Recover the amino acids of this structure.
């Protein structure tokens, strides 16, 4: 399975002792079909993250906010790129994670 293979290779990179992966999403998560697929992938990625002791920074709860969809992303024609506000939400969550002291930056 590609996720298992990728994480196994990722763990082998000699950069830091603790490895982390940032899970980001695009605006298509609001469609029912893509939401189901996204949740299936999140479960798989989390499973293999635990197997290889890779911490997940999962932004799903911060960006799956239907009432803020237009604030978080530009329109569909722009392929789901974050707005400045959406980028701030992502950055704020990464900073919270960094402040927890679990990361090791080179």
């Amino acid at each position: 399975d590609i996720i298992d293979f990728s994480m196994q290779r990722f763990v082998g990179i000699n950069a830091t002792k603790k490895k982390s992966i940032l899970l980001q999403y695009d605006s298509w998560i609001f469609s029912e079909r893509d939401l189901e697929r996204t949740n299936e992938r999140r479960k798989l990625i989390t499973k293999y993250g635990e197997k290889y002791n890779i911490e997940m920074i999962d932004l799903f709860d911060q960006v799956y906010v239907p009432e803020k969809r237009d604030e978080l992303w530009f329109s569909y024609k722009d392929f789901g790129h974050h707005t400045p506000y959406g980028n701030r939400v992502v950055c704020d969550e990464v900073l919270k994670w960094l402040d927890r002291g679990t990361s090791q930056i080179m």
